Structure formats: structure tokens, C-alpha cells
Amino acid sequence: MINISLCMIVKNESGVISRCLDSVKDIVDEIIIVDTGSTDNTKAIVSRYTDKVFDFEWNDDFASARNFAFSHASIDYILWLDADDVLLEPERQKLLQLKQTLDPAVDAVSMHYHLAFDSEGNVTSSLRRNRLVKRLNGFQWHGAVHEYLAVGGNILNSDIAITHHPVEHDSDRNFRIYERRLAAGETFTPRDLFYYANECLDHKKYEQAIEYYLKFLNSKQGWVEDNIRACGKLADCYDHLGDIERERKYTLKSFEYDTPRAEFCCRLGYGFMQKTEWQKAIFWYKLATQLEKPKDSWGFFNEVCWTWLPHIQLCVCYDRLGEYKLAYEHNEIARKYRPNDEQVLHNKKYLESVINK
């Protein structure tokens, strides 16, 4: 059985830190907390869980803070979490099982990261992150903002999921860091270009976001999943600006980087729905239902596009064409994912009355 050191960086996390630590305290063997300048009682709370609490003078560099935390770990493997992450009970049991059975030849373990949920509790967005790494390998974090952990060797892609449950956060923090770096004349890496563009989009600076997404794509150095996401983000920007032609252009450009993704098929289908071109919409939504999600992909997925959304849209399209049985069939598939959804239940009642008539 391996031993695990939990390493975290925190600042003003009194509202969530206990929830996080309670979910993992009986699994890990060591807890390292690095505080980057809390002004609330975060340090007092974490002191109830560990005496290994360290201060780090904040320098606008997340990777630096995380590497400092890793430097204090002293046992086999390092697990990292953010304060607003939590392990739900089924995942706790999976992690305990992994701890007991992990082959010491494994250098890193990746886990799912569940970011958002619908009213039924279904995951609506997710990705994969390296979460557990062998300490002696000395893996390092890179990037002042939207940092990443560079690993290599024997990597195990587990089915364990970490759940992100934020309460509140400083939505301007990362944007301010990037702006200060630009003002200082720093040259951005392709990764920085992509994530700065994301911050611009989040702050509704659409023209600026477009500029940096294009710089990122034109660098031709981006990870394929980020290239695909950049196409989707560019489509979002042009949608906000009312430029339908360019929105479609970058939706289709995503196909240059990999086989079609359901998110982009649904976007194209919706565009044709808005123009009441039902058959064209049906083509793209049907394609979305037939796609197989890339296995063990590390990309960001909008889960609704891979599950119920194309079916509910096909229900609408077929209803408009008077093909009520097909509409009903797709509504029933959507109902498997969202059994209590009011729209789905309304469709069921309506279509049953039409078909029986």
C-alpha cells in the first residue's frame, strides 16, 4: 500500500476548506497546507487537521506556490486538491482502493474533474487532470496562471472523479494577473495566449478575445484539445457579436483538428433550427448522437451534447415535420437522462396525445 501526501494552496477559504479536508482526511497520510495570504480564519481551521501549515508570500504565480507546497511533501505520492474540491463517497472508496492496490511503478494517476451539474445531478462539464504523482520523480508545476503539472512515465488513467463545488471566487483575479504581465512586456506562451483569451471572453471583451484566440491558433503550437476549444470559443465570440458567418466558420474549423465533436454538431444543428431548416438540423443532431466520445481524452466536454440534448432537439425537429413517432422516440431517450425534466415530461404528454389521436 502506498502513502499519500495531500498538498494544497489556500487563501481565504474558510467557507469550503473543512468540506474538502473532511472528504479526504482519513485517506491521506500527510496534509501540507500553504497559505498565500488569508485574512479570514482559514489557517485556524486547517490547523485542526495538520500542523504542517506554511506561509507563502504571494507573487502572482500559482505554479510557484504549488511547487513550494510539493517541496514540503515527505512520503510516497502527492495528491493535490483545491479548497473548493471534494471527494464524494463513491469516489472516496475508489481512492482508498487505489491506495491499497496501486503498482509503485506508476508515476502519475489522472482523475476526472467534474465541474458542473444539472438539476438531476448529471455531470454537464468535465475534463481530466493529473492528480496523484510519485514524489521522488520531482514533477513540477508550470505557468503563473492556469498552471499545469508536467508529468511523464507510466501514467494510469483512473475512473476516480474529483468534484468541483465552488461557493464564490474572485472572477477578476486571473485577468488582473495577465494584464499586469502584458503591461510588463512579457511574451506569452501559446498556453498563455489561450487562457488569456478565455479571460477576455469571460469579461465580455470579445474583440480582444478573438485577437488572442487567433494568435494562439496561428502559433500552431497548441495542444489539439485546446485548438478545438479555441474554435468553440471563437464561435462564441462571433455569436455574441452577431457574426453568424464567422461563428459557423470556426465551428467547422474544429473538424480540422480531430473527428467531429458532439458540441460542434449541436451548434450547427441549432443554427439550422433557428432558420427552420429542419432536415439540416436533424442531420447534425443525429450525427451528435452517433459519435463516440474519444476514449480517455483529456479535453473539456459539455456532457449534455453527448447525452440528452441532441435527442430533445431531434424531438422538436421531427415534431415540426409531423413525424411524431420519431419525435416521441427521441424524447424517451432524453427522458432516460432527465426523468423529471418539465419540458421532457410535457413533450411526452403532448406526443402521446397526438399519436393516440
TrEMBL record:
<feature type="domain" description="Glycosyltransferase 2-like">
    <location>
        <begin position="5"/>
        <end position="117"/>
    </location>
</feature>
<dbReference type="InterPro" id="IPR019734">
    <property type="entry name" value="TPR_rpt"/>
</dbReference>
<dbReference type="InterPro" id="IPR011990">
    <property type="entry name" value="TPR-like_helical_dom_sf"/>
</dbReference>
<dbReference type="InterPro" id="IPR029044">
    <property type="entry name" value="Nucleotide-diphossugar_trans"/>
</dbReference>
<dbReference type="GO" id="GO:0016757">
    <property type="term" value="F:glycosyltransferase activity"/>
</dbReference>
<dbReference type="InterPro" id="IPR001173">
    <property type="entry name" value="Glyco_trans_2-like"/>
</dbReference>
<keyword id="KW-0328">Glycosyltransferase</keyword>
<protein>
    <submittedName>
        <fullName>Glycosyltransferase</fullName>
        <ecNumber>2.4.-.-</ecNumber>
    </submittedName>
</protein>
<keyword id="KW-0808">Transferase</keyword>
<dbReference type="Pfam" id="PF00535">
    <property type="entry name" value="Glycos_transf_2"/>
</dbReference>
